[in-house]
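Lecture 7, part 2: worked example. A protein chain together with pyridoxal-5'-phosphate.
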Amino acid sequence: MPGRNFLFVPGPTNVPDRILRAMHRAMEDHRSSAFPEMPMTLFRDLKKVFKTSTGQPFIFPGSGTGAWEAALANTLSPGDRVIAPRYGQFSHLWIELAKRLGIRVDVLEVEWGEGAPVERIEEILTADKQHEIKGVLIVHNETATGVTSDVGAVRRALDNAKHPALLYVDGVSSIASIDFRMDEWRVDLAVTGSQKGFMLPAGLGMLCASQLALSKLDQAKCARAFFDLGDMVRSNATGYFPYTPAVLMLHGLRESLNILLEEGLENVYARHQRLGDGVRAAIRAWGLKLCAKAPKWYSNTVSAIMMPEGINGADVIDVAFRRYDLALGAGLGRMAGKLYRIGHMGDLNELMLLGALSGAEMAMRDVGIPITLGSGVAAAAEHYRSTAAPLPPRPGTPQSPDAQQPASPAGASVGGKQTRAAVKA
Ligand code: PLP
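Predicted complex, written out as structure tokens:
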């Protein structure tokens, strides 16, 4: 098909040209004396993205699933008990992986569309007077349902219960896109991957371990070989890896961190919030519902859109892909067919999203959903123009071109910046 494929699955996300160029290079000797300098900058800058000064980041060739395994296997022993709420396909898969490692998981069933049940967690931890529970597993952003949980509140639950369990957080579709604070929330193991907010191809599993988590390495008896953090701690101290690292991915990660830090993390979060708000305005205009049950759960990186009775979300995805070259995310696990997902994470702007929304509208109409073409696009466009940052004056003219426009209804502050409408008010 001519033109670009519109990639709007919630990972992998679009890889910016800057990152592609940074990765387009000859192979090099990963044992040379020149090699360590670059990885050392990665460890330094990853800490900024995890928002930690005391945690230690690790980069494995692999994916988020590998980082899940590394987090658990290095800090727990077979037979150890953890609690884990299950509210989507990814929390489900992490639970299954933990069970395969021999960990006893007390699963807290939660309706899909809701997030971490903070009060239940606090009650269970408070009742566990013997401190048998060794860990609490939370998926920060459940990519399958478009639900973001309050990790800070889970930390408060642990504190209120005065419980020493480690806090494990899956930040695969939140870290580098949605506010994440490892030190402030005292997260012990934070897990992520390369192909979402980091805007890289799939291929790296990353995690960050607190000093408390690292102190468990010796006593943790789960079998581990490739994912042994002890080997990594020793090699990484000098900028090397205990195996042949994925050097081109590391160069890509270097550029990804440059891009994220140039934009500024707070601006990255605000951009995702604003883009997500526009998508949600479109979904409201279509008269459709999100899987997320309440605004407090709304995800700024992915929206899962419930299908009306009699419509299979897989048909929308199929038509969008084959007819309009638009890739949308499928319903996973028990949500298969019941919804489809639009990813709005990574290297994205308003017009890219408006294109995706218009493709989704056409595909939905094609399969028989009675929406008015343009309705969602118009709602999102109105949100984007009314919340756009004010333009500085054009060189040689005293006024911003915005001053020529009639006042816009919405005026607000986005990410601490004044919006166009706010400036005129
Ligand atoms: N956790 C979440 C929240 C995810 O969205 C995903 C993948 O989409 C994973 C874990 C698994 O990561 P990977 O597919 O990189 O192994």
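Residues 11, 63-65, 90, 139, 143, 170, 172-173, 193, 202 surround pyridoxal-5'-phosphate (CB under 6 Å). Residues 265-286 form the longest helix (22 residues). Keep this in mind for problem set question 3.
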